[in-house]
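Researcher: I'm comparing several assemblies side by side, and this is the next one on my list. It has 618 residues spread over three chains. Same procedure as the others: predict the full complex and return the structure.
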Amino acid sequence: MTPRSSRLIFVLDLAGTFVFALQGAGRAMDARLDLLGVLVISFAASLGGGILRDLLIDAAPPQALRDWRYPATAFAAGVAALLFHEVVHRIPGALLTGLDAAGLALFAIAGAQKALGYGLNALAAILMGGVTAVGGGVARDLLLNQAPSVLYADIYATAALAGALVMVAGRRLGLANGWAAGLGGLACFALRIAAVWFHWNLPSAA
Amino acid sequence: MTPRSSRLIFVLDLAGTFVFALQGAGRAMDARLDLLGVLVISFAASLGGGILRDLLIDAAPPQALRDWRYPATAFAAGVAALLFHEVVHRIPGALLTGLDAAGLALFAIAGAQKALGYGLNALAAILMGGVTAVGGGVARDLLLNQAPSVLYADIYATAALAGALVMVAGRRLGLANGWAAGLGGLACFALRIAAVWFHWNLPSAA
Amino acid sequence: MTPRSSRLIFVLDLAGTFVFALQGAGRAMDARLDLLGVLVISFAASLGGGILRDLLIDAAPPQALRDWRYPATAFAAGVAALLFHEVVHRIPGALLTGLDAAGLALFAIAGAQKALGYGLNALAAILMGGVTAVGGGVARDLLLNQAPSVLYADIYATAALAGALVMVAGRRLGLANGWAAGLGGLACFALRIAAVWFHWNLPSAA
């Protein structure tokens, strides 16, 4: 990887962290938490998935603790949400959905790639993509004592797993790393947006 | 250990995984989760305890991620529960209780043994037996936003801890590995079944 | 560190464990758990924070599993709470608040120090102080299916983080280890007591 592309990935990673932290802060304010509570939820929502992934793939201490810029980004998003919550509430829903889908794609691909790099098998790497992408949202909902929305959301974790699957399959088929990641991310993003747009659901027993 | 007995243990382990995943899937369907939610709960209910144990005893990445047959078994149970939920609902309660008690015994013994193998002390190994046996059920209930039933159930985790205690004590007293494991597993199974049969409860302050 | 001061720290650590376990047991009895449930909550409330810290800083197996005196202390507190719950209920609230603030200070400083010892950066060490101090309370509340009170409590986790910050800053400024720890612990304790006394709150969006 060239220094420039690795720098781009780092910036994208922080951007995804910011988006998920902002969302988490919004949910924390809805639950009437104070400043500290909002910061805790911002941290958990944006970095919880990557932390769980790093524990599972034996990469402790997690990236979020090795590099202070990750928690700093999460806390900055929490403070921004508190200071400008009027502005945050006025962001159009479509833009939020798009940013969220982009963060989902980014985290799913980055998580699956890191798991492959640590020697995990293909199935485990795909699962780690899912954990990275939605683990933070689960931590956020558990801390707010709410049922994890990801278990009820239309094709959300499914999109993350599908994107990770495309990436892992692409690498197995001999695609260059960047192409596999790009295809996987696009698959996740497109599936998530399509699911929201067309109200796609997975089957259930009920 | 002979290859044959180690193969038997592996098959039993997958069988226990299947039983706990099937139960988890049933609970997830009751909570009206969709296909993905059912698979997530199947995974967490059957493999969450072993994953937590492996993190605690410093055996990351956990067995459930090293060997794809564990998640595959959990997901197969989730799919089976969705496809044949009419059949699953008609399984007699006594059979379910027996299978569950067998899975509990198996996981408790396997967990305590693995902890001893990683050099933990006797008390920690017994606790790891309990974590392996009931950790998945706790993860399942937390994800479903329900109070962990294991904290309220009549002599459930207690049976797991008792079985692990018997196993660890047996090995301390010089019993062969297989005998200690067999005695411990039997103790857990018998205590659990007796507790259900005779409605035994632990004392409480209330 | 002299053997005598290291022995003092160990005794204080067990004392903090006892206090948090006693509190946890009280909450478990309020929730009508049985003996096993009370012991589980005693364990999680007093040792859960340190266990999570040890997983995050790559110190597995956690101290609570390496040294049997930690779980033994937690379980002893749980049994004491069950046997003498009339007595426990009659402990004056001011004394409980003081003991709790002392335990909070102790755990925050010990957690941040251990994180520094494992090579984490200053921000991560401060966060680990917070995790050690309040992680057990979060585990307790999650297991009881209640919203984590630490996210709503007036300046509780904040006091832990402030104490850890003072300790880390003191060491950066060249203070001796003992002085930095003492100052940090005092800051945490004083801030917590003052917050209770004067009903201080953090700002919130609401």
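Model: For your comparison table: Residues 101 and 190 of chain A are 8 Å apart (CA to CA).
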